């Protein structure tokens, strides 16, 4: 699936059918904007070059500052995921989250691990 079809399915999850509902979801819904930030960062991280690396740094800094979340772009997040209160969420690298999941505030996925020091 490409990026636009995934974003379109996320919009259907938030019931953004008309143009006004689409604008309300895109402008005011923090959960959707956080998910959009992750989807763009994940898309750019798979196609790395110098300019994309600069955009990834901008998106990561924005994600941490605006939403107080740290979601690794190498994590695999399924369709129709929801963040009702996206504050303090940490999703580590190589984490896989399925479809139709609701993640609440201050949740951490992933671990430090003894053999590998991979942590967001």
Structure description:
The chain is mainly alpha-helical. The protein is built from 4 helices and 5 strands, in the order ααααβββββ. It has helices spanning 3-13, 19-28, 30-46, 50-67; strands at residues 70-71, 76-77, 90-91, 96-97, 108-109. The longest helix is centred in the middle third of the chain and has 18 residues, at 50-67. The two termini are 26 Å apart. The mean pLDDT is 83.
Count, helices: 4
Global morphology: globular
* Biggest sheet, spatial arrangement of strands: 1-3-5
Radius of gyration: 14 Å
End-to-end separation: 26 Å
Describe the biggest sheet?
A: 3 strands, parallel
What is the residue-averaged pLDDT? 83
Low-confidence sequence ranges = none
Q: Quick one: how many beta strands? A: 5
Share of helical residues = 40-55%
Strand content: 5-15%
Q: Please trace the helix and strand order, writing H or E for each element.
A: HHHHEEEEE
What is the SS-derived class?
mainly alpha
In brief, what are we looking at here?
This protein is mainly α and 120 residues long. The protein has 4 helices and 5 strands, in the order ααααβββββ. The strands form 2 sheets. The chain has a 3-stranded parallel β-sheet.
Keywords:
three-stranded parallel β-sheet; globular; 120 residues; 5 strands; two-stranded parallel sheet; mainly alpha; 4 helices
